[in-house]
Design brief:
mainly alpha; 3 helices; 0% strand; elongated
Length: 86
């Protein structure tokens, strides 16, 4: 005996109504590497290949998180190893 979900997936969806079994595909962002729809297993990517490309970019230094340089002589800030509890 088929379950309700199996039966529901065989029923046509009325035009203009969201498909409850495929709702995330319409609202999800595309793969950031190639632009194809993402696959849940590799989210946010569409495939292992795109996930590996992204990892290679991070490890190769192509992506970087900017950091603000800090002056060594800034007033009022303790540096590492400075203990102001005395």
């Amino acid at each position: 005996m088929p379950s309700d979900r199996t039966t529901a997936s065989r029923l046509p969806v009325a035009a203009g109504e969201p498909d409850p079994l495929n709702a995330s595909a319409k609202t999800a962002k595309p793969c950031p590497i190639c632009g194809k729809p993402h696959v849940e297993q590799f989210r946010p990517f569409c495939s292992r290949r795109c996930a590996d490309i992204d990892l290679h970019r991070w490890l190769g230094g192509r992506y970087a998180i900017p950091a603000a340089e800090q002056d060594d002589n800034e007033v009022g800030e303790a540096g590492p190893g400075d203990d102001q509890s005395h």
